[in-house]
Design goal:
The protein is mainly β. The chain is built from two helices and nine strands, in the order βββββαββββα. It has an eight-stranded antiparallel beta barrel with strand order 1-5-4-3-2-6-7-8. It is globular, with a radius of gyration of 15 Å.
Length: 156
């Protein structure tokens, strides 16, 4: 079984951009956002994947990912996935032995920026960068699958 241990944080300011790579666009849609699991299609550059992730709340979840043809992914996003499609630019920022993923959301979720770090264990110690804000790992609103039904633009 594949597992993912990931923590999510908000961003305090733009200092992360000083160490960030050029970023890449991601479009992802959900075929199923069910009680036990979500099934999503993601296009990242010229690669496409089908991803199945357990719907448990917290930093430890089961995750499976499989490559699929790019054209199939485009058709699924257009015809089968719930709307709105999640659109974001993902940046990678190295910091003291880890690489942070910073997602800058667009479209219906514009204005939301989330930092994620993948860990080897739930109790792994890591240094928090000075641009890091509040942890939101246990807040379901920040899960991408939740942003489809409750986009960030509607939170205010």
């Amino acid at each position: 079984m594949a597992t993912e241990i990931e923590r999510k944080f908000l961003i305090r300011d733009d200092r992360w951009r000083q160490q960030a790579d050029a970023g890449h666009r991601i479009a992802q849609g959900y075929l199923i956002g069910a009680r036990d699991a979500s099934v999503r299609v993601r296009i990242e550059g010229d690669q496409a994947n089908l991803n199945i992730k357990s719907a448990t709340l917290g930093i430890h979840r089961q995750e499976y990912e499989y490559p699929i043809p790019l054209e199939d992914a485009r058709e699924m996003l257009d015809n089968l996935c719930d709307k709105p499609i999640i659109e974001k630019v993902r940046y990678h920022v190295p910091h003291v032995g880890h690489v942070w993923e910073i997602d800058v959301f667009e479209g219906e979720n514009a204005g939301l920026i989330v930092a994620e770090i993948e860990l080897d264990s739930e109790d792994e110690v890591f240094e928090q960068p000075n641009w890091l804000g509040e942890e939101v790992s246990d807040d379901v609103r920040y899960y991408n699958v939740s942003l489809v039904n409750h986009p960030y633009k509607d939170w205010h």
